[in-house]
Specification:
Helices cover 80% and strands 0% of the residues. By secondary structure, it is an all-alpha fold. GO terms for molecular function: transmembrane transporter activity. This is Major facilitator superfamily (MFS) profile domain-containing protein.
């Protein structure tokens, strides 16, 4: 007998099949539901990961204030006081050496010592900057501080030309690069919207050094002699370094991709904005450091001026420079760093053309008016150039861009410092001033083109750049 012929068997078999199908469907449903939950969790994890990446992006999360951030600015200011400050006030030391230990050498030969010092302090940023992006500030700043302090104490013991060249020129230049590049890069890690103001405050350290260091040396040289005058500066610098290293920190974790890049990356010049800015900075540095060399000689050969006029002009220039860095830094955050720097360069150019060139040699009042405007405008340059560089790159690449830009700009200091004072005696003060006017005009043109490139070649005077 066929079992399938029995209706009861058919019914039981059908129910069994329905039950098995139902279980399979339920199992499939549970599996589908479980897979759905896994997909939702995976999607949620992915979203969370993306959100986390957004939070830690160095370009989206700047403190813009707070005690930690402002302590970094103070620390940078303290480290720039001995490094940049001694750099812009090296004139009294150079003059003393020329009259005493190195009296048998010409002013040009003696001038090569501070020239190498300034050149290496700026040029070696092309290595220090990428190292900062990779490893942060702590060990670079500490090593620079120790080396710079040793340099100052050794400088007090130097007697021969090669002593001064090795100690001040090479050791001072190498350690100075570690300090200047690291200090400005640290500030860029903590501020973006207020970067112009904060880097201006940090650069006040160099301006204050340019004002006070000559005053200290002028008082100590006749009373304590050369050795103890330099030692007094060394102890003062040591105190600045101790406090500066304790409170100055980088914020952004080291860039993992930076290790994949070469130390010297000339490919960044493919960015026309950066290339034009570098040309402008080169011209600015020629005029800035050239003027530091020409002003004392310019005042000396002008018989209408008192004997100490050159010293007072440099002091006024450095003193007013600190005000310029602070005011223009604040203005630049409101109206744009490129805009503010462009206006300051044009004002400096007009001051040279209208005041210094026709009246500077025979009218002392006009010379003081010019040097006040000049100090304020050049203070703006030194404060805002790093801020403008920071607008062209990410914060974790600031060291590379800053170091590369000043590697090119430093070539100007290698030549203009030792020969500017001598050239003014050969070609005359009027011709030298006219030359600097032409160089600054070229810098203004290059900087204007850089701003234009930032706007994608669509010129607009009112855009905040």
């Amino acid at each position: 007998m066929d079992p399938t012929a029995n209706p009861l068997v058919k019914e039981i078999s059908t129910e069994r099949n329905v039950t098995e199908d139902s279980k399979q469907n339920d199992t499939a449903g549970v599996t589908h539901s479980h897979n759905g939950e896994q997909n939702e969790k995976a999607a949620s994890t992915e979203i969370s990961s993306e959100a986390q990446n957004v939070v830690i992006d160095s370009e989206d999360d700047f403190p813009e204030g707070g005690i930690r951030a402002w302590l970094v600015v103070v620390g940078a200011c303290l480290c720039l006081f001995p490094s940049f400050g001694f750099m812009v006030s090296i004139g009294p030391v150079q003059d003393y050496l020329h009259q005493n230990q190195l009296s048998e050498y010409s002013s040009r030969d003696v001038g090569w010592i501070p020239s190498v010092f300034v050149y290496l302090s700026l040029a070696l940023g092309i290595w220090v900057g990428p190292l900062f992006d990779r490893y942060g500030a702590r060990w670079i700043a500490l090593g620079g501080s120790i080396g710079y302090t040793i340099m100052m104490f050794l400088l007090a013991e130097c007697e021969k030309y090669w002593h001064f060249m090795l100690c001040l020129g090479f050791l001072g230049g190498i350690t100075g690069a570690a300090l200047t590049t690291t200090s400005l890069a640290c500030v860029a890690h903590w501020f973006k919207r207020r970067r112009g103001l904060t880097q201006g405050i940090a650069m006040i350290g160099s301006s204050f050094g340019g004002l006070t260091i000559p005053l200290i040396l002028r008082a100590t040289f006749p009373n304590y002699g050369y050795k103890w005058s330099i030692r007094i500066l060394a102890f003062l610098f040591l105190g600045c370094f101790v406090i500066g290293n304790l409170i100055m920190r980088s914020r952004i974790p080291y860039n993992k991709n930076a290790k994949k890049k070469s130390i010297i990356s000339l490919s960044i010049f493919a960015d026309l904005r950066f290339s034009l800015l570098t040309v402008a900075v080169f011209c600015f540095e020629v005029v800035l450091f050239g003027s530091l060399g020409i002003v004392p000689t310019y005042a000396t050969i002008s018989t209408d001026y008192p004997p100490n006029t050159g010293f007072y002009l440099i002091s006024v220039m450095n003193g007013v420079s600190s005000v310029g860095r602070l005011i223009t830094g604040y203005i630049s955050d409101k109206y744009g760093r490129f805009n503010t720097l462009l206006v300051s360069a044009v004002v400096a150019l007009l001051a040279m053309l209208i005041v210094w060139l026709p009246f500077g040699q025979h009218h002392l009042a006009a010379m003081y008016v010019f040097i006040s405007l000049w100090g304020m405008m050049t203070g703006c340059w030194m404060a805002l150039v790093p801020a403008c560089i920071g607008q062209l790159c990410r914060a974790d690449e600031f060291g590379r861009y800053y170091g590369t830009c000043y590697f090119v700009a430093s070539l100007s200091t290698l030549v203009c410092i030792p020969i500017s004072g001598e050239l003014v005696e050969i070609v005359g003060p009027t011709a030298m001033v006219a030359f600097y006017i032409a160089v600054l005009a070229l810098g203004v043109v290059a900087f204007t083109a850089s701003r234009w490139a930032c706007l994608h070649w669509k010129w607009d005077w009112t855009t905040k750049v």
